Amino acid sequence: MLLLTNPARKGMIISSMASAITFTILGYFVILSCFTLRSTAMKTWCGKAYQQGYVPPAALIEMAVLFNETGKEFIFSTETFDASYAPQTVILELTHVDGRIFRATTGLYYLPYPRPTQSITRIGTLYGVLHVRSNGPAWQTIFPYTFYLSGDWLASDPGNLKRFYNFGFNVLHIVPGGAGIGYDLDQLDTWFDEAEKLGLWIMYDMRWTYQNTGYVRTQVERCKTRSNMLLYYTADEPVGGNPFVDILRKLTDGHEDDPDAPSRTYAFIKSLDPYHPISLCLNCQNYYFQNYTAGTDIILADIYPVGTNTLYSTKYRYVNADCS
Asked: What is the pTM of this model?
């Protein structure tokens, strides 16, 4: 089984091959004397009774926390968790010595194993890394290294994919065209098969179709069981959804996607494939940042540090001092 974080993107992603989970407090201003994680029923914490009428879940772990302490790890057993595609709620409680209680919740996905040949990607949120597993029980760490790749360039020469690999890239991210689903799916399968033989992982781009559930279903079902599937890519520079979007576009050159579209697609993709994370790419200023990032596990940014003028947009012909 595999344990993944919940859609809130706050929590842990670890393998249940181990018998315990590590939870680490990072960056909290801790002013409390007792830390508790719960999942089922219990009546006291740190020796104190809960408020009348509240039936708390049983504690997974309960430990003291010093004033302003950070980086402390709490390990608890996963033996009571059942494999499920639905998230299991975990409650974090911080209890002050004067009796005040601060609570936060997260969801833990404790998933059944997929088919043996299917890849799994987990996000190590503690250290900010990706772990992948395919065709066996061993996990490996991967640092994705790639760029937006043109399908026309790949199609122009059968040897181009091998050339791409020889440059040291480890992830294949093909940008779709603008018509229909955006790909010749048979050709795409050929490239993905070759990528698997080379050891390249797939970053599947649905930038033009991610708001169409029919197209999304077709694409996810087609690639989710591949042994070299790494993650999905939905919104690409989605800034928009505002009555003054024409003005904003002059500042941001975004695609004017509905700010809540990534979240809807996120939930839909997870219902089809909970084993691979979802990414999107933002640009420029903080327009609808909270809305857009609510629909992703991984936030990307267009940096374009090589061969570009970061101060002036030649397409929209404006000074672009904020979008470096």
From this structure: 0.76
